[in-house]
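Weekly modeling sync, notes
Attendees: AB, CL, MP (scribe)

Item 1: holo prediction request
CL wants a bound-state model with arginine before deciding which constructs to order. AB pointed out that an apo prediction alone won't tell us much about the pocket. Agreed to run with the ligand included and paste results into these notes for async review.

Input as submitted:
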Amino acid sequence: MNLSALLRKRFHAALNELTDQPEDFAGMIRVAADPKFGDYQSNACMPLGKKIGQAPRDVATKVVDALQIEDVCETPDVAGPGFINIKLRDEFLSSTIVEMIGDERVGVATTEQPEKIVIDYSSPNVAKPMHVGHIRSTVIGHALSETLRFVGHEVITDNHLGDWGTQFGIIIYGYKHFGDPDVVAANPVPELASLYRLTNQLIEYQKAKASLPQLNTKLAEAESHAETEDAAAKAIESDEKATAKEKKKARKSADAARRRFESIKSDIASTQAKIADVDNDAKLAALAAEHEDVPAAVLRETAKLHEGDAENRALWEKFLPHCKDEINRIYDRLGVTFDHTLGESFYHDRLPGVVEMLNKLGLTTKSDGAVCVFLDGFDSPMIIQKRDGAFLYATTDLATLQYRNEVFQCDRILYVVDSRQSEHFEKFFAMAGPLGMENIELVHVSFGTVLGKDGRPMKTRSGSLIGLESLLDDAVARAKDVVCNPERLSNMSPPMGEEEQNQIAEVVGMGAIKYADLSHHRTSDYRFDVDKMVALEGNTATYMQYSYARTQSILRRVAEEQGIADIESWIGENISTPDIQLREPAERALAIALIRFEEAIDNAIAAYTPNQLCDYLFDTAKAYSTFNDACRVLGNTDPTILKTRLALVVLTGRVIKQGLKLLGIGVCDRM
Ligand code: ARG
C-alpha cells in the first residue's frame, strides 16, 4: 500500500470543495517530523488560504470537515498556522500488517499501467578489461530492471556491448605485432587483455608526446593571462574608487585564470608521467620507437574490420567470445543477467540504411564531406557518417532505436549511461520525432563518477583504471574480515564452516559494492571506500543483511521455544487483525515503517533513484533495531504480545529481503 498516495487521493477529494485546482495542493503531504504530532502532515492550507483569500486555519478546518478518511486515521488535528496532523488508526495499522503477511508481494500492488520497457545497461566496451567505471551502469540498471519488473512492467534488458569499436582495432593491432598465437590460444583472456594494455600504452605514449608542444604553448598563454589578470586585480584592489563588489569580481576572475594555469600544469605533469613510464622501460621504449604512429595504424585496423577485411573479421570472430567470457565472469559474480546482448556489431549492416533514410527525409546536410544532421536548439550537428565513410556511435544508436521500436515494440527505453554522454543523448533523443518514433519515451538515466577514497578519479599508479575484478575480490576479503572474525564466529552455534563463511563473504562483499553505489543519488559522484562499504553499522548493505539475519535468528529460536517447525507459515495461518496490538512506540514505529514499503518503491521508480529505496531500508532497519532493544520476543508468554511481535519480525525479514532483492542484493540466514 502506498500510504502517501492514499492520503493524497482523500485530500484531493476534500480540496475539490474549496478550489478548482485541488491537484496543486493534494500532494503537500509529508511524513511528520515528530511522531508526537502524528504520522503525516499536510501543509496545503497555507498556500491554499493565500490563493482563495481565507485564513489558513479556517481553510484547514473546512478541509478536515470534508475529509473522508476515518477508515485510515483518527480525526485530524489542525495545528499552528494551519497544519493538518494525521495520526493513523491502530486498527488500520493492524489490518494492513495482517494483509501484508498474507500476501507474497508483502502488500506491494502491481502497476495499473504496465508498459513494455527496454533497459539498455552495463554496455561496456569489450576487449578491454572492465574497470570500476562499469560498476554504476551495471548495478543501477540491474536494480531498476528488478524493481520495474516487480511492480508489473514488462522489462526487456539489453546489454548494448561496444563490440565493434576501436578497442578491437587495438587488440587486432596488438595481436598482429606483439602477439604469439600459441600463447594467446593457450590463455586467451589474460593474453588479450595484456595485448590491449600494451598497445594502448603505446597509443597513449605517442599521443602524449604529440600533445606536449601544444600543451606547453597553452601553458605559456595561461600563465601570461593569469599574470595580467592578477595585475589587473591588484590595481583594482588598491583603487580607492573601486567598490567592494568590483574588487571581489576582479579577484575572482584572477583566481579562475590562476586555476586554469594550474590545471594545465597538472595535465602536463600527468602527460609527462605517461611518457616517462614508457621511456623508463627499455623494452617498451624500444617498441614505441620501432612502431610509428600506432594511433593511426589502429584506426586503419578498425576500418578494415568494418569494411569486411577477411583477416580482421576472422580475428574479431576469434576474440569476441573470449572477451564475452571475461565480462560474463563478472556478471555471474554480480548475479546480473540480460534478456539480450545485442552489441554494436549487430547493427553494422543496418547503418547505411539509417543514413539513406535520413537523406530521404531531407534531414541531412553535407559538411566538410561528413554527413550531418543539424538539430534545432543545438550548437553543433550530429555527425552520422564521417568523410571517410565510417559510421559513428550515434548512427548505431539510431539503428538500435529503430530495431527496438520494430522488434520489441516498447513504450519506453531507459539508457543507463554516464552523465558525460548527456549531450549525445539529448541530440539523439531529438531525432526520434523526425524519425516517426515520438511514441517511445526515451530517458537518459545518467549517473556520476566513482572516485577513489581521496576524492580523485580512481586510477592505478601508472594512470590506468583499476580492474573491476580486483575490487570485487577486495570487497569479499574485507567482508570476510568483518563478518567472519574469530570473535563473532565463537558465538555461532552450530559452528560456521569455511564453506559457509566464504559464501557469506561473497554475498556480503557483492552487496557492499552494489549498495554503496545505489545508496548515493545516481547523479552525484561518490567515493569508493571498501572499509565503509562493509561496515556493520550505518547505511550499508552489511547492516541490512545483518538486520535480516537477526530476524531469522529470532524466528529460529522462537520456533524452537514454541515447538513450531515453520514459524513463518504458522504466523501466516494464525494471525488476524485483533491479534496485532501495537502498544509500544517502537512496535508502532516499526509497523508504520513496514507499511511504507510500497511508497518507497514508487518513489524509487518515479525518478529512477534506487537511493530512495536504500534510505527506506535503512530507516526500517533502524526502526527494527530500536524495536529489538525495547521489545522482547523470546520467552514472552502473553500470546497477543508474542503474536504481534512475531508478525513484526516476520514482516521485517520479508521486507528487507525483498527490498534488497530489488537492489540485486542477497541475504544470508545467519551472519
Ligand atoms: N559502450 C558505451 C560506452 O562504454 C555505452 C553504450 C550505452 N548505450 C547506448 N545505447 N549508447 O561508453
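Recorded for review: DSSP finds 26 helices and 13 strands in the chain.
Action items: CL to compare against the apo run; MP to circulate these notes.
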